[in-house]
């Protein structure tokens, strides 16, 4: 039986860097050219299977990037196992904002949180303002995962989530999923009734 | 082929389910009920057996279930309901035998069985077994259609194979729709009143931003509530029936009826007329009905206080009709010792019933006893108009002792429950369940905890489990097993408690008597009721939580003396007067109840208690019973399974920012949000808090509704109200004026939406500490920062705002009775508050013009300002000392211990009150100067020495407070 894990992931970053688009590409493999800005926090889930058949289920909170909602962000990154901090490679200021988020996470989030820095809008690399060297150097210094993506073309999107999954502590015992009692009513996709109990590093347990 | 049957079943299934086989069978024996035999082949034993498969949308696995449908007697084959549903899992097995009892095990070999079945033209018995952890359920069914039975068994085998192969993934959650189908019946009987009236959000799982609670569970709670209400709404015929009920409670102290009971029984025309007291409206000074800042609600701030409204409703019903139903509770019917052990005789009951009918006078012939129940000293009697007798059905009784050992009947309750169905309807209406309790709770002042316990104990133990009389009404057919199950007391639409509850007044005996005597008539009743143990128990939720009791305007009903030991009011000198005889009710929102009267009847003097009566007017909506059941079932199907959908809920909120502009103290502003479900599945939404320790919104903000459900395409409105009360203002006055809050609306199993609420708070002099007011550098509205204050050596003696009000009154008021004349006009009060906050001039009284309204507004603003202070003018720790002062000199000496700002306010105020009491009263006035001083002291004492609500200091006697103030005023 394959191992299954479940992790809480939060997306942070300046408004309009493409957080929601990145999630939409990852979860539904879709892209909208015109998306309204997120006023709130969207919840989605996606399960990926690693080479060793281990499955990792991400419970994703896609937060609002607007400054006025900044005070609510801690509510969403508390108990998160991993964070994707997104910047726009065509906006130098968005990397600065990303660095602020990273500092905040390092200070206030769970110490074992896995942080990935993600430069989005790779399809617009002609208008690039942030060089790969600059971002990767910063990521190395801070011990972050780093990658560039394009939510529009899909380039690098799955790779970054896979990289996060591999870096997460996949050492917990396999889930007891098979032992689930018939007619218990636990649904399987996109929904989990025991979300609240997702403490950091906990393994998936659907029962 | 019986296509109708298959179509009928398929119509009950959702699109994800498929009917595989179905056949008609007969029940020979059910595990639960052994009373049906195979010989009766009427509708009652007929069943339809079906095997259904379910295919999940995202995995290929198929799951199966066997459903047994019941046919509604006398209805067509299309009218089916699910009796049981078994998942075809490891626990499921079946066998088929020929009627001559040779068992064939179908599991052994398929081919051979098929051959056997094919040959047989006779009946076959099919046994279905389902093993649960604790028991084995089995059904033996007779089938005649062998061909259909064959395809049934083949499908069952196939699906069981499927289960064995995919056991790990088996889920069967889809089946709950069909197993819950039977619980759908509960949608047509009343839900526990404590539950149905509970705000829905309090029943949901705890949740906060980023940490949703149990969304699936919340969905089902919201959905059931929504369906229950929606089904009623859809089946509402648009018309309603009026039912007049008169209730009464009377502790007869072991006496036999020896007086005419008609005042207690006949409709009360006017509260005051009958009870022999002056209309309470005249006796209550206007200042007394100012909204109480302690429990101020938005409703009271919006206009007339609830007290005035209540009085109005008592008097506006000039034309009083005979009640349709009279329900009377008697206590201490029999005080003999034998009666405590066994009650056999109905002599006393008969005598009282006779006295009731006699008391009804010439109307007596219109009535007949409907039901009665006695438990030792407690008797409950229901008497109905003969013309309405057939409206009442399914009458049930319950009794519970609460006396010695909790079983002997000297204390306890008797109760009657009945269904009311309006007559003369073309359709058959949903009945309204009425429950009446007559209770007698533990005695003595100090036994308050015991009484609270008794209430909860009786609430739990009063259960109605059987029909005492044969059910002769038209509902007998449908009122089968489900309506015979035991039902709790609160499973009613309207619940009345008529109680001798022995709750007393928590004040010294002398104070109670003095307060009752001092004002003409029952003028001090509202003040006394503040110390009433029942009112306190209700307020704290310790007993009778959520019950309504009409404002009391009558004198205490206990204890009257029958001999020389009476006081001037006729009360026994040895027992503190109290309102021990009460009538309370609780009703579902769907059944509006208006109380028309609430009074005691001092003319009836045979007991040491006076009987109390209350008239109720029920407006019963006529709801089509059948339509309601169909609607509930249809809605249930429509909304079921949202929590299992692979689609996410989507809503659109408009706008996402609410700017309230300038926000003033006690000025209500309302804005709305529109919410639309633009997704593909029904959506349950609720507001959640950012942080588990916080409420969903600050105190100055209210959201309605907090929880909701929208079907795809539906939209509704959410109202957001801003209202700054004293408690909010006391905090906001010390914070920067910019208000900014983000509301979080969570869609179950979906997104959190943010709504920002902003506004500019306008500082006010209300709801501050006195000391802070004396150090304000300028009018409060001109302050740049809440921390601005003058140095200690520059502080003013007394707050400018209070002095301005007093100076105005000293200047313009010549006749002190002007202080209380006229209604308080809220618009003038707002204007005066604004002048205090900005430093602007008060509107000046026009010479020659009536300035009564302005005077009333100024004096009421003064009382409100004093009452809004964070700490009372006289600090709580000094209240007990104040009451010890026996002379004017002692009282003045105590001022040395007051904080400096309090002394100055106290001196200015009492000087003003003293001056007022010395004014010459107009000759036509009936009040003298001493009375005026007393009146002023009554109003101001309760404000200046406001009771401490933190529980740190015990409230002191209101009489004592007045006396202390009178040392300065009189």
Automatic annotation (TrEMBL), chain A:
What positions belong to coiled-coil segments?
A: none
- Molecular-function GO terms, alphabetical: GTP binding; GTPase activity
Q: Which CDD domains match?
A: Rab5_related
Q: Which UniProt keyword terms apply here?
A: Cell membrane, GTP-binding, Lipoprotein, Membrane, Nucleotide-binding, Prenylation, Protein transport, Transport
Localization, UniProt = Cell membrane
Q: Where is the composition biased (Polar residues)?
A: 191-200
Topology term for the membrane: Lipid-anchor
Q: Where is this region: Disordered?
A: 182-207
Keyword Lipoprotein set for record:
yes
An example of a Gene Ontology cellular component annotation for this protein is: plasma membrane
Keyword Protein transport among UniProt keywords: yes
A Gene Ontology biological process noted in the UniProt record is: vesicle-mediated transport
User: Could you name the domain of life of the organism this protein comes from?
Assistant: Eukaryota
Task: Give the principal location in a single coarse category.
Answer: membrane
What name is this protein filed under?
GTP-binding protein RAB5
UniProtKB/TrEMBL annotation, chain B:
Q: What PANTHER family would the database entry show?
A: INOSITOL 5-PHOSPHATASE, TYPE II INOSITOL 1,4,5-TRISPHOSPHATE 5-PHOSPHATASE
Molecular function in Gene Ontology: phosphatidylinositol-4,5-bisphosphate 5-phosphatase activity
| PROSITE patterns in alphabetical order | MSP
Pfam families, sorted: Exo_endo_phos2 (PF22669), OCRL-like_ASH (PF21310)
Residue ranges of every copy of the MSP domain listed in the record: 650-781
Residue ranges spanning the membrane: these are none
InterPro entries the record matches: Endo/exonu/phosph_ase_sf, Ig-like_fold, IP5, IPPc, MSP_dom, OCRL-1_2_ASH, Rho_GTPase_activation_prot
- Gene Ontology BP terms: phosphatidylinositol dephosphorylation
How is this protein named in the record?
Answer: DNase I-like protein
